[in-house]
Amino acid sequence: MKKIVDASGVIPDDRKKSYTKGLLAGFQKDFLMALSILVPHIENSVRYLAVECGEPVCNMNEDDIEEIKTMHAVLELEGVQESLDEDLIFTLKTIFCSKFGFNMRNNVAHGMFPDQAFQSFKALYIWWFALKFCYLLCGELQVENRIKMNKKLKQLSEKK
Length: 160
Fold this sequence. Notes:
It is a single chain. It contains 9 helices and 2 strands. It is mainly α. The protein has one domain. Strands 1-2 form a two-stranded antiparallel sheet. Strand 1 (about 60) and strand 2 (about 65-70) form a beta hairpin. Helix 3 (about 30-50) runs parallel beside helix 8. The chain is globular, with a radius of gyration of 18 Å.
C-alpha cells in the first residue's frame, strides 16, 4: 500500500501516512476508520490537484475573507477538468458531493453516516474507490505493473 500511495501524484507528501492508514483499515474491514480518514483526504487530494494545475481553490468574499471553494466547485475548474477524465469527475461528484449521490463528504464530515452504514456495500465501494483513485494517478508504478502484466500474458499465451 505504501508503494502505491507514495507513487500517487494526487496525495501530498504530508498526507501519505494518513492515506495509507485509511487504505490499510479497509483491508482489515474497518470501514468506519477507513472512510473517516479517506473521505476528507480525497477532498484534499482534489484540491491539491487543482493547485498543481494552477487553479485557485479559494475565493475572497465581500468582506475580503478568504473562503475555500466547495469540492464540487473545485471539480468544475478548467485545470481539474483537463487533468481527469469526465467519468472520474462524475464519480467523484456522485460519491462525495452530490445530494443525488452518496454525498459522503457531507455525511462523514457532519457525522450523518450511522455506524452500521460503515459495514455496508456502499462503504466497501467508497473504500475501493479511494484505492482506485490513488492508483489511477500513480504514473510510473502503473507503467511498471502493465509491463509485468504484459510479460505474464505473453508467457501464458506462448504456452497455449
